[in-house]
Amino acid sequence: MSLNRPIHPPSPERMLRDLCPALSGKTYFNYGGQGPLPDPSLDAITASWKRMQQLGPFTTDVWPYVSAEVNSTRAQLAMLCGVPPHRLALSENVTSGCVLPLWGLPISEGDHILIGDCEHPGVVAACLELARRMGLSVNELPVKHLRGGRNDQDQTDTAVLEALEQQLTSKTRLVVLSHLLWNTGQRMPIAAVAAQLQQHPAKPFLLVDAAQSVGQIPVDEAAAAADIYAFTGHKWACGPEGLGGVALSERVLQESKPTLIGWRSLRDETRASLDDPHPFHADSRRFEVATSCVPLMAGLRCSLDLLEQEGGPGQRLERIRLLSERLWQELAAVPGVMPLLDGPPAAGLVSFALDQTATALQPARVVKRLGDQGIWIRDLADPSCLRACTHVCSNDDDLQELVNAMRQVIGPVE
Fold it and tell me: 305: which residues sit within 8 A by CB, 6+ positions away?
């Protein structure tokens, strides 16, 4: 497939790229780390901040404004996740969205946690510390090297479910699995996993790290099926850092306990007394803690609206996949470059390793050399590889620049 053939003609509706100053003068492939913030979103944040100062940051006039911002943001994120607003808690990032509900689950000494072997270190560390404190056993769910799981999505789904069945025990109370693996880019069948866990006698909870999902792929089915589905707004949603959300199941709302506690966790934020042993919200708000940055909410809502102008979730994913497939094919044709997946990526994460017989360069050094040319990708440690992300802001010229640069970096292979 030639990169000189456009995927489709330029469309006047596709203007998000032009609204992002971070994309000017560089070739950007790090949406999985942090997305660019569009100018209208920055303007919305600034306008919200000014409005709060005009009303007075701590006055009776400002509270209706703050309440409206919180409620509208919660409603928009809940709709995106396919859950009612009472099941959506606002968070600062993926980690807090995962960890706060995780530590409130009804898990007891001797129970078992099953963690996918491609999970982010932050979530893994939280689970291991929980296991240490409570006397839990922990095992890995092998998804990195599943039979056939790096080629066909149906094969991936089948292999994940088979591996899950083999690893579950009578004591398993929690399964931790990302929606999109942050290193290989494989998509996990979250809804099917949730259904399988419900058939298990222990009915384990399902915690999903959705850091690479929201803004890139349709998430409503998976978010509604998982028990904890945590995401951020600063990656593929192109919102500001410091704001995300977590969709929680009804079962979590009924059985979990609050963990890190503050005034936002309380039904009545003005009081907590010995006479009321259960002062917390009955819904997802029990996992919200205290003061957070309200103006960020206007920015995230604006970014989500701008993404919708690029097309619905399915339309955006189709474009992202066309771009990632083309990049995957072209990189595979570069001597010394080895894509991790046997087939085109399920979404926009394109990870590839370097043949050390072709080049002595380590991934981090390649990132530095490309950065010197204004091309931005990242290196990952496990597995050792490079990762480039395509988004709706990406275009054919971006792909061509990266492929040409990789040829130059590696040089001729004897």
Answer: none
